């Protein structure tokens, strides 16, 4: 490792570069998108009043909104080709040597590592600083060295002894400390005391981080303690971002889906919409309703859990629509405008609709039919979710299968991702809804007169259309304004599909399915210990050792001996591939101990065997 001042300065510059805000979301179209929504809301308010026909302002607002919406759609389509890749749960657990990596932000409970912002060796010790993600985070719950969970003492030393065989005192092999990423942080004084270039200005404001020191180790112990060497992966299980509770207004750690989405919508590292848009009276009421729905306890096989939680990470270079899409998919959510110009969240829960669309409202229809066509239907839903039992990584949920339909038509599968859903039960409930949406009894589009405006912002409406024998509850998939000549609002078009209450019923015993079995195996990476050698005293006297061959081509055998009372060991050379060795001349009538051990090709030594004790009698 190069210890030059120039290299250390490069590391420090790398840390500062990481702190520069170069990869945050910068999407001016977002503001136009939500300006579009607000324009529609205002227009709707005017349209439902007594001056609809004469309101030139309403007409202009709606017409302008449609044109903006079209330009946004084309822009979104073009940018989707070059969309940054969304981070998988396992991606954020990797530590990489890249101080200018895009920043990450985390919600809920996640297991994470991060890019190196400093790495240097001095005096045989190795020092490392990792940037975990945007702060502040709420707490660090667990520390992991590679695949070993460790506990730290007050000084950051490891309490337990995974290196007990080396005889190393507790806490003298690794030191770990962390910062939560407060707005004004404190630097790592342990690092500054060794590298003067790391000053009190290297605080890492707003960035959660980890400091690790791997103490100098002798060659025979180093790989036993650090099999990955300087690339030892330090990971943390954290309670991540603190978010505002829309019910209590408290800002604290919370994994409720509504609280997480609300935070992302207004956060400076999220969509950056003004707080005012989610705080109008009707919008606030909607967020409270969504929060309470997400917090409702749902039965599981093991007991119960909140209906919808969100755990996961996003990169600040991702498009906000992609991040929001992951969140919505994992909680059956949708953002909806409110009549007072706000924006709120609707989380799916069955409720009898208050709006009925009937023949007095319907003026036309298209694509009305029984169910979906074969290209868009599915009888098997496969999905991935976030499984804490699988090391906080993605796992395949038990598929949702309509066995009868599979028997009739064969398997027609669709793959989905609920990668921010942190339980198998939550994933299966979402899969059930997806199955109903893939196989509705009715689908279609209905053109309505101005009476259809009553469906604006509604998730469920009842449609009564005797011509087709329809009198069912439908879920609104799309709501469009119909603009006529001169910019006159003539009505709306509803794209709908039937959604029965059974889709939201839940029987954990029958429907939760079986979560995947945790398939991690315990791997014994220790070097085996050989049996004690067989020792015969030959003329000289000398000791003749016999032993079993090495169990592996990568393990060589070493031997040693000493006078029991002296405590000084002497080595016995062993030729490669042999199973015997001879000592040098011994002292007659002294008691000796003889031991063996295996050593890997990289110099990692195992423990010595038990001693074979013999007396060096004279041989006639």
Automatic annotation (TrEMBL):
The source organism is Borborobacter arsenicus
Which keywords appear in this protein's UniProt record, sorted alphabetically? Membrane, Transmembrane, Transmembrane helix
The UniProt record lists the keyword Nucleotide-binding: no
Q: Which residue ranges does UniProt annotate as crossing the membrane?
A: 56-78
Q: Which domain of life is it from?
A: Bacteria
Under what name is this protein listed? Fibronectin type III domain-containing protein
Q: InterPro entries, from UniProt?
A: FN3_dom, FN3_sf, Ig-like_fold
Residue ranges annotated for the Fibronectin type-III domain, each copy included: 529-620
């Amino acid at each position: 490792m190069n210890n030059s001042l120039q290299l250390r300065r490069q590391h420090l510059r790398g840390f500062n570069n990481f702190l520069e805000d170069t990869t945050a979301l910068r999407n001016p179209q977002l503001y136009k998108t939500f300006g579009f929504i607000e324009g529609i809301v205002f227009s709707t308010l005017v349209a439902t009043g007594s001056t609809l026909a004469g309101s030139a302002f309403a007409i202009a607002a709606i017409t302008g909104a449609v044109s903006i919406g079209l330009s946004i759609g084309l822009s979104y389509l073009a940018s989707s080709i070059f969309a940054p890749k969304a981070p998988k749960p396992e991606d954020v657990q990797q530590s990489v040597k890249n101080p200018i990596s895009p920043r990450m932000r985390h919600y809920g409970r996640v297991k994470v590592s991060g890019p190196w912002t400093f790495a240097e060796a001095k005096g045989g010790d190795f020092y490392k600083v990792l940037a975990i993600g945007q702060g502040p985070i709420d707490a660090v719950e667990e520390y992991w060295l590679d695949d070993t969970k460790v506990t730290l003492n007050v000084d950051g030393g490891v309490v337990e002894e995974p290196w007990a065989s080396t005889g190393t005192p507790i806490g003298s092999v690794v030191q770990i400390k962390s910062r939560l990423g407060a707005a004004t942080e404190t630097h790592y004084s342990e690092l500054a005391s060794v590298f003067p270039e790391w000053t009190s200005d290297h605080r890492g404001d707003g960035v959660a981080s980890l400091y690790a020191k791997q103490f100098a180790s002798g060659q025979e112990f180093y790989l036993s303690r650090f099999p990955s060497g300087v690339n030892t992966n330090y990971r943390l299980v954290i309670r991540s971002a603190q978010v505002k509770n829309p019910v209590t207004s408290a800002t604290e750690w919370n994994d409720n889906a509504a609280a997480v989405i609300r935070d992302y919508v207004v956060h400076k590292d999220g969509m950056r919409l003004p707080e005012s848009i989610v705080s109008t009276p009707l919008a606030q009421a909607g967020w409270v309703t969504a929060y309470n729905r997400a917090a409702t306890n749902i039965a599981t096989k093991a007991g119960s859990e909140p209906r919808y939680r969100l755990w996961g990470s996003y990169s600040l270079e991702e498009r906000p629509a992609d991040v929001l899409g992951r969140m919505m998919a994992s909680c059956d959510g949708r953002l909806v405008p409110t009549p007072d110009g706000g924006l709120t969240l609707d989380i799916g829960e069955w409720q009898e609709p208050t709006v009925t669309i009937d023949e007095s409202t319907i003026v036309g229809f298209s694509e009305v039919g029984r169910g979906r066509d074969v290209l868009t239907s599915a009888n098997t839903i496969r999905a991935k979710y976030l499984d804490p039992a699988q090391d906080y990584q993605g796992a395949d949920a038990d598929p949702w299968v309509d066995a009868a339909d599979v028997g009739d038509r064969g398997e027609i599968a669709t793959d989905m991702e609920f990668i921010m859903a942190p339980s198998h039960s939550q994933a299966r409930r979402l899969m059930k809804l997806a199955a109903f949406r893939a196989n509705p009894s009715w689908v279609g589009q209905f053109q309505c007169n101005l009476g259809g405006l009553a469906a604006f912002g509604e998730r469920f409406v009842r449609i009564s259309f005797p011509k087709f024998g329809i009198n069912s509850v439908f879920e609104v998939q799309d709501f469009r304004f119909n603009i006529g000549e001169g910019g006159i609002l003539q009505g709306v078009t509803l794209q709908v599909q039937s959604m029965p209450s059974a889709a939201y019923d839940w029987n954990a015993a029958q429907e939760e399915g079986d979560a995947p079995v945790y398939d991690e195996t315990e791997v014994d990476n220790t070097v085996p210990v050989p049996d004690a050698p067989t020792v015969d005293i030959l003329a000289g006297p000398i000791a003749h050792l016999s032993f079993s061959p090495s169990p592996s081509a990568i393990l060589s055998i070493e031997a040693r001996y000493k006078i029991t009372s002296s405590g000084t060991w002497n080595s016995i050379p062993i030729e490669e591939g042999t199973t015997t060795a001879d000592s040098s001349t011994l002292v007659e009538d002294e008691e000796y101990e003889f031991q063996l051990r295996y050593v890997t090709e990289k110099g990692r030594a195992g423990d010595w065997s038990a001693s074979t004790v013999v007396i060096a009698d004279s041989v006639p």
